[in-house]
Amino acid sequence: MANILIVDDQRSVLLTLEALLTKDGHTVTPCMNAVEALRTLAHESFDLVITDAVMPGGGDGYALTRTIRKHPLVAKVPVILLTGKREKSDIEKGIEAGVNDYVVKPLDPELLLAKIRNLLVSTKQESVHFAEAPVQYKADWEIKTEITSVSELGLKIKSNVPLPLGKILRLSTPLFEDIGIPKIPLRVDSCEEVPGAEVFYKIQAHFVGITEKELSPIRLWIRSKKSF
User: Fold this and answer.
1) Rounded average pLDDT over 144-155
2) Distances from the Cα of 127 to the Cαs of 115, 117, 146, 177, 199, in angstroms?
3) Under DSSP, is residue 136 helix (H, G, I), strand (E, B) or coil?
4) Does residue 150 or residue 140 have the better pLDDT?
5) Using one digit for the tens of pLDDT, what is the confidence trace for 60-81?
6) Contact criterion met (CB below 8 Å) for 101 and 80
7) Is the peptide bond before 106 cis (omega within 30 degrees of 0)?
8) Environment class of residue 92 by beta-carbon count within 10 Å: exposed (0-12), middle (13-18) or buried (19+)?
9) What is the secondary structure of the chain as a DSSP string?
10) What is the pLDDT at residue 2?
11) Which residue, among 211, 220, 219, has the nearest Cα to 106 in the 3D structure?
C-alpha cells in the first residue's frame, strides 16, 4: 500500500514495526539512525516516515523531522514520532519540529495502523472509522467552535471559519473533563464547507500524542453513549 521508512536505534523495535507494517501490506525500509535515514531519503521516495524521538549519535527524531521539513523534495512527507514518554514539553517539541503525529511506546498496534492509514488516505471514502459518539460541546479556540463527535482518533468540529490542514488546535472545552483526560492537542485533517442559509465548515481533527492511558477512558465514554 505504501513505502514506509522506519528509524529506530533498537533493532527489536525495527523488527516489530517491520512485521506489523508488512502484514498490513506496506513496503518497509529500516534505518538505525537519522544520518542513515537522510541518506536513504535522498535516494528513494517514501510515503511516510516513522522515527524514534531519541536516538544516540547521528541526530534524534526531532532533528530528523526538522531537516525533512526544510528539504523541498521531502518536506511534505508525513512523519510519525515514537517516544517512550508523553510529557507536554516533548509533544510541543515534536509539533514545533513539524511531526504529523506522536505515538507513545509501548505501541498500540491498532492505534498505530489507524493513524498510518489516516495519514495516507487520499479520499474521504478511504478514511479510518472508529466507533464515535455524537455530542454538542462548546469549545474555545481563537474562534468559537462546536464539537459534534468524538472517536478514538479525534474530534469532529463545526466552525463558521475554515481552518488550514495541519493546523494544531488546543481547545478549551469541558468535554475533556467529562471524559476524564487532560487537554490533548489536535491536528486538522480535513475542512469541508457546508453551504446553506448559513455557511459553516465541518472539520476533522485527530489527537496528537494520545496514550493508551487516555484511550481507555475515551473508549469507555464512547461506549456509554451507545453510538456504534
Assistant:
1) 88
2) 10, 7, 22, 28, 24
3) strand
4) 150
5) 999 999 999 998 889 889 999 9
6) yes
7) yes
8) middle
9) --EEEEE-S-HHHHHHHHHHHHHTT-EEEEESSHHHHHHHHHHS--SEEEEES--SSS--HHHHHHHHHH-TTTTTS-EEEEES---HHHHHHHHHHT-SEEEESSP-HHHHHHHHHHHH--SGGG-----EEEEEEEEESSSEEEEEEEESSEEEEEESS---TT-EE--B-HHHHHHT-----EEEEEEEEE-SSS-EEEEEEEESS--HHHHHHHHHHHHHTT--
10) 92
11) 211
Give the C-alpha distances (Å, rounded to integers) separating 101 from 49, 71, 115, 151, 214. Answer: 11, 19, 8, 16, 16
Q: Mean pLDDT in the chain?
A: 84
Q: Find cell 516489530 and name the residue.
A: 16
Report which of 69, 66, 218 is spatially closest to residue 154, judged by C-alpha positions: 218
pTM, whole model, 2 decimals?
0.69
Grid cell at residue 192: 469541508
Residue 137: beta bridge partners?
147
Q: Which amino acid is at 74?
A: V
Query: Which DSSP symbol is given to 1?
Result: -
- The grid coordinates listed for 107 are 505501541
